[in-house]
Write a structure and sequence with these properties.
8-stranded mixed beta sheet; globular; alpha/beta; Rossmann fold; about 20% strand; 5-stranded parallel beta sheet
């Protein structure tokens, strides 16, 4: 199955200033498969080692001598690794932290050799002060579950994918195509983007086996919890995992996770799941201009799961009747989907940091689902599961921040509204005139490529 990362890897291979690449992502999002597929298509010689499974190789990286390491690997596996036609792939590199330090010496002493490393729990190792990162001697790429666009390609709907990618603001969009994409979007909501689940659906077009796949994937996530401290800490991770699945898009209240656990314990569990890339923390911001920065209270955030299919499984939503199942959960699923698309369709070499805006004031509370930077302009983004929904919070944000344009994702065809009027109940402003860019949910992944310009005075 095609992954967008493949294009990035090809560009990386061709670059003269290429550095050893560290691929970061949660377990089973397709890192190993994609690198192996890329290697088969582009290299004469390829060696993959897994430092989690092949712990006998750890001692090789004690030497900090890349030439000696390659000599010994060549002798062990009889695969020549010597020039630009060779790729060394070090999988689960976090299992031998000194191997991360050796990457800088590959860059300095053997720049002709192409080196990629990956690790599912890599962030935990990088967070340890004991191990220094070879800053300036490596580069990063980020991988997530399959996006909706990758899903469309996998199931053979390239025409629909092209229709989305070719859209330009103010273009008319076919109602027939729109309806068909919405049907597939609902299917994606429940299958999600984990490659194993998508491949099963591609091969069978059957939903009955998806739940078992999701169950096995959740079990593998919980198996990793055994690596994170005491049994009590592991129990807190399970509590947070289940809480996050039930509270997508809601501000976290530590006491609601487990009233018998301390706030520090719950906070630590959230951070561990974030470092495992199982959840993303959407931070509150008060910023309305570049750069976006978190609110000074770092404990104010809402959770987003890393995959919408696994989220549904944890939330207990059964894959029985997709067309009639989204009533009670559609708002949370729409928000989960939009953030997941924005994260997975960000520049591969840069990690997307999600934000939202919250105004807590007497008689005038307001919340914007997402605050996003496009080029050098900040936009408020409202997310609606259906075609309708109030925009009161959007109006408050535009008035308070002196902004002229808002973005809305919903279930309708795309449209642009200019010169719109909204009445407010604010002391210093009673009415605003604004523009609204309204896009269907499935266009979240192309938001950055659209020419969205803010009309300023």
């Amino acid at each position: 199955m095609f992954r967008n990362l493949e294009n990035h890897l090809l560009d990386w291979k061709k670059r003269k200033n290429r550095k050893p690449l560290i691929l970061r992502g949660a377990r089973q999002v397709g890192k190993t498969y994609t690198v192996q597929k890329f290697a088969r298509d582009n290299y004469a010689h390829f060696l993959k080692i897994n430092l989690e499974k092949q712990n006998n190789l750890h001692s090789l990286f004690e030497k900090m001598d890349p030439k000696q390491i390659i000599q010994e690997l060549t002798a062990l596996f009889q695969i020549p690794l010597m020039n630009e036609n060779s790729l060394l792939f070090i999988d689960e590199i976090q299992a031998a932290p000194k191997a991360i330090r050796v990457l800088r010496y590959f860059y300095e002493d053997m720049p002709e050799l192409h080196v990629i490393s990956a690790g599912s729990l890599l962030d935990h190792t990088l967070n340890e002060k004991t191990y220094s990162m070879p800053v300036g001697r490596v580069e990063f790429a980020y991988m997530y579950p399959m996006s909706f666009y990758e899903f469309l390609i996998a199931i053979g709907e390239n025409g629909l994918m092209q229709a989305i990618q070719n859209y330009k603001l103010n273009d008319a969009f076919s109602e027939v195509i729109h309806s068909r994409i919405l049907e597939l979007l609902r299917t994606y909501y429940f299958i999600g983007g984990m490659p194993e689940a998508v491949k099963y659906y591609v091969d069978t077009r059957d939903l009955s086996g998806i739940e078992q796949i999701h169950s096995n994937l959740i079990s593998s996530i919980q198996y990793d919890f055994s690596k994170f401290g005491t049994r009590k800490q592991q129990d807190s991770l399970i509590d947070v995992l289940n809480y996050a699945a039930r509270n997508i898009g809601r501000k976290v209240v530590y006491s609601h996770v487990n009233k018998n656990a301390s706030s520090l314990t719950i906070k630590d569990a959230f951070l561990k799941l974030k470092m495992s890339r199982i959840i993303h923390l959407v931070r509150q911001t008060k910023s309305s201009s570049v750069p976006l920065t978190p609110h000074k209270r770092k404990d104010v955030f809402k959770p987003i799961f890393y995959d919408i299919g696994l989220l549904n499984h944890l939330a207990g939503i059964r894959l029985i009747d997709i067309q009639n199942l989204l009533t009670a959960h559609e708002g949370s699923l729409a928000e989960q989907f939009i953030f997941q698309e924005l994260i997975s369709n960000n520049e591969i070499w840069k990690e997307f940091k999600p934000f939202y805006w919250l105004r807590e004031a007497k008689n005038s509370n307001a919340e914007i689902d997402c605050i996003i930077q496009l080029q050098n302009t900040v936009f408020p983004v409202e997310i609606k599961a259906g075609k309708r929904g109030t925009l009161k919070s959007l109006h408050v944000y535009l008035a308070e921040k002196g902004k002229k344009t808002g973005i809305r994702f919903n279930a309708d065809v795309p449209s642009i509204g200019s010169g719109l009027k909204a009445n407010l109940n604010l002391l210093d402003k009673k009415q605003i005139t604004y523009s609204l860019i309204s896009l269907p949910l499935y266009m979240a992944g192309i938001l950055r490529s659209l020419k969205v310009d803010e009309a300023e005075d």
